[in-house]
Every structure is written in structure tokens, then in C-alpha cells.
Amino acid sequence: MSQGTTVTITDAAKRRIFAMLDVDGDGVITRAEYLARVDRAAAAMGRGADHPVVGAARAAHEEVWADMDADHDGRVTFEEYRTWAGHDAFERSCRPALGSLFDVADLDGDGRLSREEFTRLRVASRNTAQDADRAFDDLDTGHAGFVGRDAYLAGIHDYVTTGASPMAAVYGSPNGI
């Protein structure tokens, strides 16, 4: 966790997120694994690699990768991820990248995701449909049938910085850590 903030994320939450990003389960996140999340989201939403929102998402994820891979060896270990993850990293690079994935999933560009869009995005992010459904219900506090961009990003921010939020459900942790 970066200095200057009192909020910390538990190792259990960090391990859940790291495991989601370590697609092959070998204990390291490679650049290819990390950037493939954009490709999975685009494919899940039926968007081609040449679509402008997909290009923007790829660029935003390149920024996260450069920030996360502190020693620039092309691999991020859990220890490296543990040191990097937190509020400052989220605000510096994750918020734009996660917002760009939201934009990939927001097929009509209205700034909100339907349950179907939300679920497709979260399943492409290696969550179960059941966990995504539960997170959608928790984030859709007004029961309007949509989750707005700000609520989505706030939910992820809260999870990655404290381990507890409505988005905890997609990480298999409905009650936080």
C-alpha cells in the first residue's frame, strides 16, 4: 500500500484479484495474460479489435501493465502485485483501465450497463455468472435494472482498497474478506 493513505487491502483480497489475473495459475501474471482481458471483454461484447473503445481499453491496460510491472521483467509476481495494489495505483492507472472495460461493455454508450452487459463483462473477467448476478443486484441499489459507470468503478475501488464492497461478490466473497 502506498504511503499517505490509511486504507489498506487485505492479502486475501489481493490474492483473489491476483488469481483472477493469473490466468494459467503459474504464480505470475504475464503481459499477455493481463492484456488478454481486453480481448476477452471485446469478444464477449462482440466488438472487434479495431473498434475505438477496444483500442482505448488496450492503451489503458498497457498503462496499468507498465505501472504494475515495477521491475520491467515482463512478469508480475504476487509480491510485486501486493506492493503495487491499493488506492494510489487504482487512481493512477486502474480507474482509467477499468472504466475502459466498462465502455467496451456499454454497447449503447449510455453510461450504464444492463444486467446482461454487466454479466458478460464480468464473466469475460473470469467471474462466474452467479457471482456477477449477485454483484449486479448489490450495485443496482435503485433497482432500475442498470449499473452506472460511477457505481461500478466505486464498487471496484472499494474492493481493491478495503476488500469489502458490493463488487466483493464477483470475487467469490459476498461479505467482504
Automatic annotation (TrEMBL):
Pfam families: EF-hand_5, EF-hand_7. One of its GO terms (molecular function) is calcium ion binding. CDD domains: EFh. The keyword RNA-binding does not apply. The keyword DNA-binding does not apply. PROSITE patterns: EF_HAND_1, EF_HAND_2. Keywords: Metal-binding, Repeat. This is Calerythrin. It comes from Streptomyces lavendulae subsp. lavendulae.
